[in-house]
Structure formats: C-alpha cells, structure tokens
Amino acid sequence: MGSVIRSAGMRGFSDVVGQFGGDAAALAVQYRVPLEALGSDDVLVSDVAMAKLLEGAARELPCPDLGLRMSEYQDIGILGPLAVAVQNSPTVGAALGCASQFLFLHSPVLRFTIVPDPEGRAGEVGLCYGSSQGTPPRQATDAILAFAHRMIRFLVDGPYGLHSVHLSHQPRASAARYAEFFGAEVRFGQAASLLRVPRSLLDRPLVGVDGTLREIALEYLHSHFPEPGRVVAPQVRNAIDGMLGTSPPRIESAARLLGMHPRTLQRRLAAENTTFEALLDDARRDAALRLLTRTDLPLQQVAGLVGLSEQSALTRCVRRWCATTPRAIRAGAVAVAPSSGAAIRAVEIAAGTGPVGAAAGCRAGGPPAPAQGAAPSYE
Fold first, then answer.
1. 369 DSSP assignment
2. In this predicted model, what pLDDT tens digit does every residue of 275-299 receive, in sequence order?
3. Is the pLDDT of residue 200 over 80?
4. Integer Cα distance of 122 and 128 in angstroms
C-alpha cells in the first residue's frame, strides 16, 4: 500500500517538462497527480502516483535524466521548517542527523541514514537513501540523491570530498551525464543508493550558524510534529490556520488544498488518531488565546476571527478549554502563556509555515479518533 509525499519534491517538474515541449498539467492528470501539486510545496500526493508521473514523463518526453534536472530547481527550502534547524546545525553530521530524524515530514516511508562504507574502506561512510517500501524508483532516487548532494554543497559552501556515488538502478541517461552532475565516479546496479564520503565530513563545522535559532526550530518541530506517523494532521492544521478568519473552516476546503477527497482525508486523519473537528478545535483554541492575550480586539471580533458566529459561542469554548471566561483571560486572572515566543514566530516566517500558539493550563479540544488498523509498480 502506498504512502504520501509532499509536493515540494516536484519542484522543477513543470520547468523541465516545458523545456522538452511537454505539458506538465496533462501529464499530472494522466498519472492522477493533483494539479495543485504543480504549484505548491504542501500538497500531499500519493508516492506511487508521483513516482509513476516521474517515470512516465521521463519516458514520454523523453528526458532520461529528469530527476537530476529537477534537483537543479530545488534548494534547502523544500524541507520547510526543517531547513532552519538543518542549516543552523553545528556540524555536517548534526545537520544530516536532523534531516534524517524529521524526514517523515516529507514522506513517512523515506529513509536517509549514515551507513558503513559499502567498499569497506576505513575513514569513509555512505550517506544512504532508501524507502521502507522497497527499492525506490529510478527518477525519484536520482532526484533525492541529487538534492542531498546539492544540499551538502550548500551547507559547506563548496565541494565536500565526494568519493563516488552508488545507485541501485541501471541508468537511462548516460553514465557520463551522472558523472558530470555529481563530479565523481557513479556506479550502477549497486545494493543501495548512497553517496560515499570521508567520515571526517561529519565533523566538519558549519559556518555562520545560530545555535539559538536551531534550538527554537527543533522545539517547533518536536511540538508540532511529535509522531512520525502523524503526517497528514499537521498539514490539515496548517490549512485550518489559513482559513480561520478568512473563510469557513470546512473539511472540504482542507481536502481541496491537500489534493484529496474529503473521505480520504477523514480516513487518513483517523489513521493518525485524530479528526478534522479535533484539529479545528485546537486551532480555534490557540488563535483565541493568542488574540485574547495579545490584542484588545472586541470579543465579538475575536469570535469571528476564530470562525465562531457569536460571542456567546466563544465564551462557551473558552469555558470548555480553560474553565474560565474570555474576559478573565484578557484581564490576566488566569495564567496563560504561549508555547512559542517571538523567535518561534521568526522560524515560521523564515520557513513559510502558518501561525502557531497554545496555552498552559488549557486542555486540547476534542478527543482523538480511534486508530484504524506489495511493493507498487512504477512503470
């Protein structure tokens, strides 16, 4: 059974397809990839559908080095909030460890690990890419390993001692094209796809990092994405945050933003032990408490900004969340502290994520939903 992957991995697809005279939108429709994924980083796409799209486009254009070409349009920003923590890590090894730890935000099945050198040479290690669902397809492997190569070059501002590249597949493009891209020997048909690098690279310090910003970014990631299995829920929460105060927060709207059917979204949220209603309640709580403690807006306006029709509805919600009234919270009679300060807000701005907030002493909204309990072909 397939999983999902953020559409950030498709950056550059439309550009490359256009260079070859193709129609990216038509290809997306053909392979059942939401059109929204072509212009947004945060649409959740079936990993099988995306893999079939890349393989099909590479074959039909033809563009055998599609994955390599796409990576040239991708920078560290495709990692979202994780990019802030990665690029402010003290060493290359710490940066790679951070990326590996939170890679589930991009896709729950992807793996990026540091392994012993497959050729058994002392002083070398492999930076290995793989999937929990078997050998990844050709173009996806090329794109992700190429991105890892470019990310490390970005972190160290230049060459990093890449010795050779192992790829588990046989090439469709020429071996010379791969060697030109990576600037190193590339071997095909290997047991795993990886970059062979000096072990000393892991201890190489990064320049110009902000340790405080890294800790804040990690706190943000841990608090907002605590469980590797919860991939859809954070995306829905971000969608709800964007709807509050601007449009009615409905599951149909969130599903459309994420490129899936509302019933599919309900099932995936249930599999992550939550519901749309619970996420909406949490978002309303955080927004309401932030507005009550940081602004002097009239209570009726606060109610409207959190998607409630009347001030009395706001009062009932605050009583349920905090066992007190909105006026008491605004007057400071109840201790309410945001879980993230101004610096967390800076992380969100830098990463392009939505607003966050919470309150000490106020409980989460609704109860969680009960949990629900063959390698795909990409050709």
1. P
2. 999 999 999 998 899 899 888 899 9
3. yes
4. 17
- For the residues 122-136, what does the mean pLDDT come to? 87
Which residues lie closer than 8 Å to 114 by C-beta, 6 or more apart?
93, 96, 97, 100, 125, 126, 127, 128, 202
Question: Rounded to the nearest 5 degrees, what angle is found at the Cα of 75, between the Cα atoms of 66 and 144?
Answer: 45
Question: In this structure, are 197 and 236 located in the same domain?
Answer: no
Amino acid at 81: P
Token readout for 210 is: 């902000």
> Does the residue 322 lie in any domain?
yes
110 CB contacts (<8 Å, ≥6 apart)? 5, 103, 104, 129, 130, 131, 144
pTM score: 0.67
CATH of the domain at 282: 1.10.10.60
DSSP symbols for 234-282: HHHHHHHHHHTTTS---HHHHHHHTTS-HHHHHHHHHHTT--HHHHHHH
Other beta carbons within 10 Å of 135: 14
Residues 131 and 184 in one domain: yes
